[in-house]
Amino acid sequence: WGLLLLAVALGATAATRCPAPCVCDNLRAHVLCLNGSLTAIPDTIPELTRKLDLRGNSFMVIPAGAFLATRYLTHLDLQRCKVERLEEGAFRGLGRLVYLNLASNGIALLYQESLDGLFSLQQLILEGNRIEEIQPGAFGHLRSLTVLDLRANALVYLPDMVFQGLQVLRWLRLSHNALHVLGSEAFAALPALRRLSLDHNELQALPGEALARLDGATRLDLGHNPITYVAEEALAMASLSHLFLDHASLQDVAPDAFARSPQLRILDLRENQLQGLPPLAGAGGLVRVSLDGNPLLCSCLLRPFHKWMTRARVHAEGACTAPPALRGRSLNSLKSPEMRCSRLWPPPSPTAPPEQPSSASSRQCPWGCFCSPDFHHGSCENRDLREIPRDFPEDTRLLDLRRNPFRTVPPDAFPGLKELVSLHLQRCSIRVLHPGALRGLASLVYLYLTDNHLSTLVAAAFEGAPQLAYLDLDHNAFTHVPAGTFRLLPNLISLHLQHNAIGELVEGDLAGARGLRWLYLAGNAIRHIAPAALAPTKMLEKLQLEGNLLSEVPTAALRGLPTLSELKLSRNPIKHMGDSVFLPVASSLQHLYLDNMGLEWISPHAFTGLGPKIRSLYLESNKMSNIPDMSNFTGLEILNLHDVPFHCDCQLLPLSRWINKLNLCIGATCGSPPEVQGLKVKLSTTFQTCPGWGQSEAAETSPNKTKAAIKPNKKKRLAKSPARGFSKSRA
């Protein structure tokens, strides 16, 4: 009781410090600052706050010591805050924090000290960022963490010991990335891990060596990976009970593939290309094998598996595809004599696994540099070097050469580094990347050339680096996309060309970039995108064009992008938006950013084709005089209408009703009349005097009601028919 009274007393004192536009519940020690226009962490948050919710603001950077004034925080929510960088020591002082949510931001890289000070943290949510690389040691201070969520990022590679320090982690979520390279010791420091989610990645083989370090893991999800074959004794996980390999590309499984996982009970092999299975030797604990969705050929060659599953009392789910006489029959209903060899079924020959690289050389580290044999890292950061040093150990996988005035990268600059995966050349005053500069870097996945002086590139510069997947050219001097540069990069997934001086995209600029998924072009001077400029990138998922000079939506250029799910057009001077501007990508688009554009008019039919797939729509800080009907946007999770001056009279009643049905916090406020200025549209009392206010929901949504457009406050009356929208009251 004493503590409660003290908290109430201090809370009453702190109440006067509640920052606008936040809401402070001092009794529960909660502060909410949702979907506002905050660009910095408020410094007047009550000191005793336990839960701080800052969702939907615009912080961009979390600076060092940002929360030193709120040391009692236990829960911090920073979802959808446009955060791109966590400075070292950003969360220092939050020793009581147990929950941190940083989902749906723009974080690209985690440094070693980014999460320093969070020694009580139990859950860390980083889902939906664009994290491409994690430096080992980034999680080293999180000794209490039990759940780490890294879903839906841009990870391709996990280095050795990347999760070092997570001694009590129980669930690691890495789904929906682009992982295809795992260090053999990537999971070596996770003694308490029980569940690992690696589904929806690009793994082409079962990463047995990396997984063998997980002695205590009981559940492993590898579904939706292009794995074609499970080799002999491929999986050695002593405690594994549930294995999911569904929706992969499996064509064959070795008889003793799971012999070293004796506790395996559930094996999910649904939706693969298996025509059958051999008896699974050593898997004596199996209870169920799911084979639904496979083209099972129930010939005599399936008899050994059928006899084994009957003898071992394994329940097998699946049905025959052939021969015709047995089509549709479940495996459990078959009798051995029925499985005849009327058709031959030659099982595919398993491809032999690639040879492991030979043991690394122990050559000396270059003078003035630091080489870590445990992490396979080399670093010469900020050593004022004029030439790229040589003689790094041959097993080096990450090489950090930032902040050295190299000026050029000569041919064969990195000899002997065939295992190098990540190369950092940021802020090196580089003007020229010579042909053959990367020759011999056969394993290179990440190349960072940010903050240099590059204005052109030639394709030959990338000769010998065919695995390159991430190319970062932000903050250089490009005035156009270096056409033809990407022809030698068949595995390029992510291309960063932000904050250059590119004026347009023309046909041929992206030739050869067939596998590109993420294209970042923010902060350029792009005025025009040719209709065929994006044609080679048919797998594109994210297109970020914010902060350019586009005056209209590049509708023609969006044709032929069947998988585009995110489009950012924020901060472009697009004043008018016509009919069906997003129709070419309507079947795939999920996230649409149209904020801070000065929009003055949106056609009632601008969103034609869009519907339930749309999950987030950002329209804040605009001046539009209409909002198209979005009643079929039934999948909306985020709608931001902050800083749109709605006139809250009876003509806005349909919008108010729709907002209330959404049950979302969207930030829509009244700009007029004066008595409700600044009040949330949801809370405005002006609608209570409107005709039909008390009618039932059925009457409120009657087809006779006009839904084409809903108009906020404007000084000028628009020449639009009442049948096309709701006209503004002039009372």
From TrEMBL:
The LRRCT domain, residue ranges: 294-342, 645-691
SMART domains the record matches: LRR_BAC, LRR_TYP, LRRCT, LRRNT
GO CC terms: plasma membrane
Region span, Disordered: 693-731
One Pfam family, short name: LRR_8
Every LRRNT domain range: 17-51, 364-398
Coiled coil: none
Superkingdom to which the source organism belongs: Eukaryota
Entry keyword Zinc-finger: no
UniProt entry keywords in alphabetical sequence: Disulfide bond, Extracellular matrix, Glycoprotein, Leucine-rich repeat, Repeat, Secreted, Signal
Compartment annotation: Secreted, Extracellular space, Extracellular matrix
Signal peptide interval: 1-15
Keyword match Calcium: no
Gene3D superfamilies referenced in this protein's UniProt entry, alphabetically: Ribonuclease Inhibitor (3.80.10.10)
PANTHER family listed in its UniProt record: ANTIGEN BSP, PUTATIVE-RELATED, INSULIN LIKE GROWTH FACTOR BINDING PROTEIN ACID LABILE SUBUNIT
Homology family: Belongs to the small leucine-rich proteoglycan (SLRP) family. SLRP class IV subfamily.
Subunit-structure text: Associates with collagen and binds to collagen fibrils.
Purpose: Potential negative modulator of chondrocyte differentiation. Inhibits collagen fibrillogenesis in vitro. May influence chondrocyte's differentiation by acting on its cellular collagenous microenvironment.
Protein name from the UniProt record: Chondroadherin-like protein
Annotated source species: Vidua chalybeata (Village indigobird)
Gene this chain is encoded by: Chadl
